[in-house]
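Q: Structure tokens for this one, please.
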Amino acid sequence: MGRPVFLFACALLLLAASTASAARIVEHTFYVQNLTVNKLCNSQVITAVNGSLPGPTIRVREGDTLIVHVFNKSPYNLTIHWHGVFQILSGWADGPNMVTQCPIRPGSNYKYKFRITKQEGTLWWHAHVSWLRATVYGALIIRPRAGHSYPFPKPYKEVPILLGEWWNANVVDVENQAIATGAAANLSDAYTINGWPGDLYPCSKKQMYKLKVEPGKSYLLRIINAALNNQIFYKIANHKMTVVAIDASYTKPYATDVVVTAPGQTVDVLLTADQPVGSYYMAARAYASAAGAPFDNTTTRGVVVYDGAPSSATPLMPALPAFNDTPTAHKFFTNITGLVGGPHWDPVPRKVDHKMFVTIGLGLEVCPANTTCQGPKLSASMNNESFVLPSSLSMLQAFFFNVGGVYTTDFPAKPPIQFDYTNASINNNLPLLFATKGTKVTKLKFNSTVEIIFQNTAILGVENHPMHLHGFDFHVLAQGFGNYNPATDRKKLNFINPQIRNTIGVPVGGWAVIRFIANNPGVWLMHCHLDVHFPVGLATAFVVENGPTPATTLPPPPVNLPQC
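A: Here is the predicted structure, written as tokens:
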């Protein structure tokens, strides 16, 4: 072998070795079972993972393969959703109950296996059956591959901040009671930071999250809104934060003193400990956009304690926005832009193959006969279609095995009736308040570009709805209030540096325009991430056809896929 050929062969071997070392297999085991915890002067049995609330933090690098063995030792059906993960050719691991799998029955188990590609930042995992995600959730942190760096200064430490919601009750019972009676579900009793309610709640003086910092150091806070039904304002007294990523997508640095998150969303911020040595509260409470609707108006707080601060120091409290401060929320949601040219940045697709105008909002449903429901009961719909999950077979199995009768592909691309969407007087038009129930989806060609204009309606009242798309990120091209007007609002679309998300808070009484490329075959749920709205029909799904090659075709299901 000549010297040049030998050197070339060595180079190939080194390249292969470095590639292999860059991508690892990361393996975890989840034991999901009952756990008794004491909060707010109450002893409560909850469903939890590995005996902790929140559940374990999973840390991977981009390119890694993640395997999670889930053993369901709880009394409830269970699935786990890996919120925001693309699941390229691994839709069987996405997790929404009856969409990509049947549930893991009590006493059974399932192995989730998927590769994480072209994603860095903060995502999370949670249960996707009933309201179990109130206590079954945790962080999923994706760092750059070995040898790659963040597109911002390396922080001294990284800190997950999970914002949760707590009931002094069994959350499954709370949901079931609402379904049975047709009434609104009972409100939560507290919010939490990393599982702790904080000292404003009864019996909680010592149940407060504490973050110790060193003066002059910077910290990457990975903020996750894991609450079930509330958008949240978050502040730290006397401190600015710099947003560097949202929904595991890098952003142009954005300085702010308040973070606003909808359920399902994540925000990565850099915090510099640049204030006088002391103690400072971090606090969070609801952003409640639905006028007149009851909500949990309590406040959770933790404390940032500087190294060297006297233990007797009284922490400073931040001034939180008013509960209904929509201008502050809208400013935060709209001022963030994408990091053009940053890691995994994708430009906006300009040619649109499938256009949709989708109304989102609430409604009513007639109570079934011979039930305890005292109707009419709450419902919700998209384009006047109220989504119902199938009961006999998952939608992905129906897609793969070509089984009929599970769903239909006639979800309308526009509302069947056009009306003055955000005018409260539409509530006088009784037929508009009732939507048909069904399992209607949209079929998409592989690699087609989809544009969706979400339009909130005033049926039963306007509200900011966090819409989450499984399997894809999307560009947020524009957001605004009132009825979308193509003549004027089309000019507002940002094709240069829009933010990229997997969950968009559609403005209260307003609209949002998103685009994505359907480059992953399978069945992908799109739904409101408020758990009071998803079960009553605020959802639909996309069925993305297989591509032309084996590398663009959904593989068969794993052998241990749960059966109905």
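A few notes: The mean pLDDT is 94. The longest strand covers residues 25-39.
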